[in-house]
Design a protein that fits this description.
- The chain has 21 helices and no strands.
- It is an all-alpha fold and 507 residues long.
């Protein structure tokens, strides 16, 4: 019970930060759309630049981010302080050095990149190519800062300091970026102002994270490059997640660039905006997983499988129930949400619907990937990811020329569903864990009943008020959460669920 409440407490902090970023991110993009000279073009170029940065990130982190979540808690349990400290220093140095090397390679060979651009992407005109390459040095600086900040964020999660990452990254960093954006756009920097706001914010977060880690480790910490933490199992784990990261980023890179090849950079911008809403869907699951990972690692060291089972079932149920209002809201208001960015973005509505259903199925499996990752089944994850990537890449090559953006969404959706199904099969064979108790049908009844009530309420309210209005849309999603939790309370909550809910409400 105490462990569950502790995870909920930390997950709520993580969720609060994530929801703040997602909401501000929405307004951030909305502000951009209405203030950039050519919003779909600019967002398309930005999406391509970020896709390039993300594609390179596995080569700079080399899987050490995953090692942080897995082995820092383990070294804490074993009181291996020196090993932990040396790992943090060495990994940060390695990531910084490799990021710099990649930056120099990209910069000095940028003309070759230009030729590649010209040869591959016939649909992109010379002006777009030139603009992208002109902005390349800014993207390079952004890449270095992004990769350094990312590894420190992973290290802090491994140190179980999620609260501090949320405060600086979410509650301070993102509002700062928004404020800088408004100032820089108003002095006439246009799209460059967008990039500069990203760079300044990341630099601030990077410096903050360095001081936070120094304070956490206190007098025990000295910056020292040492490889005493290197073990065969650690290197295998890092290499596994390097490959996993590469395969994951490959599909995130390929979809945008294939849309550019067969459509236009404006369509890339529209596709990018749909993810403003898609990224809301797994927010509950991601918030839990950030806390879940190091805790599962500790429990696994103690070989307490039953505790993992209890936590898995409890949080899967809560994840499904709490995610449902968000999913229902996005499906119901998909067109109206995109229309907020302008009529030109409505063409992305089917992308939104396809990926919403894919994420719904993913959420139903709960933290299956995180548990596999923390229980020494990472090699299995590698095989699954190769299969997923192969199917997704082949699907994109086949579907994007025919179905365009919807083809990209369909390919990603198939990959998401396939990944979760196979992950669960392996988890069950490995640990005999199941995400639900025998009365899981009660969750289904609760959600079906909630859907009918909310849809009926929507149709009734729509006759009296304009639910496309901001105020009523926000009110409706709050109503959705209340109805969902109340029905779950009476239909599918166990006694433990009710006690937890009561404690949360009391606090």
């Amino acid at each position: 019970m105490d462990k569950i409440l502790n995870i909920i407490k930390q997950s709520f902090i993580s969720f609060s930060g994530e929801i703040l970023v997602k909401i501000l991110g929405f307004f951030f993009k909305l502000y951009l759309v209405h203030n950039l000279l050519d919003s779909t073009l600019s967002l398309g170029i930005f999406a391509l630049g970020i896709a390039l940065i993300d594609f390179i990130s596995p080569f700079t982190s080399l899987g050490f981010g995953a090692v942080s979540s897995k082995y820092l808690p383990s070294w804490d349990v074993k009181k291996q302080v020196k090993k932990k400290n040396n790992f943090i220093s060495t990994v940060f140095f390695i990531v910084s050095l490799i990021s710099l090397c990649f930056s120099l390679i990209i910069y000095f060979f940028k003309h070759n990149l230009f030729i590649y651009f010209s040869f591959i992407y016939k649909n992109s005109n010379q002006v777009i190519q030139s603009e992208f390459l002109f902005l390349l040095p800014i993207f390079i600086i952004l890449m270095i800062l992004k990769h350094q900040t990312s590894i420190l964020n992973q290290i802090l999660i491994g140190l179980k300091e999620v609260k501090k990452t949320v405060i600086y990254f979410n509650f301070i960093g993102f509002p700062l970026k928004f404020l800088l954006l408004i100032i820089l756009l108003n002095i006439g920097l246009d799209f460059k102002g967008y990039l500069y706001s990203e760079i300044i914010t990341l630099f601030f977060i990077l410096i903050s994270f360095i001081f936070i880690i120094k304070n956490i480790l206190n007098e025990n910490y000295n910056f020292k490059i040492s490889f005493d933490w290197v073990e065969k199992k650690v290197l295998i784990y890092a290499f596994t997640f390097f490959i996993l990261g590469f395969l994951s980023k490959l599909t995130g890179f390929l979809d945008k660039w294939l849309i550019l090849k067969f459509m236009s950079v404006n369509d890339v911008g529209i596709y990018y905006v749909t993810f403003t809403f898609i990224n809301f869907l797994p927010i509950i699951l991601k918030s839990i997983n950030r806390i879940f990972a190091p805790i599962i690692s500790e429990i696994w060291e103690q070989k307490n499988i039953q505790e993992i089972q209890t936590l898995y079932q409890f949080f899967t149920k809560w994840t499904v129930i709490l995610s449902f209002p968000i999913i229902f809201f996005v499906i119901l208001f998909n067109e109206k949400l995109l229309l907020l960015f302008g009529s030109g973005f409505v063409s992305g509505k089917y992308v939104l619907i396809i990926l919403t259903f894919a994420h719904l199925i993913s959420i139903m499996f709960g933290s299956v990937r995180t548990i596999l990752q923390m229980t020494d089944k990472h090699i299995n994850l590698l095989g699954i990811e190769f299969l997923r990537t192969g199917i997704v890449v082949l699907s994109m090559i086949l579907f994007i020329p025919i179905y365009q953006m919807e083809g990209a969404a369909l390919s990603l959706g198939v990959g998401i569903i396939l990944n979760n199904v196979i992950n669960y099969i392996i988890l069950y064979k490995h640990l005999k864990l199941v995400p639900y108790k025998k009365d899981f049908w009660k969750i289904g009844v609760s959600i079906i009943l909630t859907t009918f009530i909310l849809y009926f309420t929507f149709n009734v309210l729509n006759n009296f008020v304009h639910l496309s209005n901001w105020f009523w849309m926000i009110l409706f999603i709050f109503l959705s959460f209340i109805v969902t939790i109340l029905l779950a309370r009476y239909i599918c909550f166990s006694q433990m669920d009710k006690r937890v809910l009561l404690k949360i409400l009391n606090k």
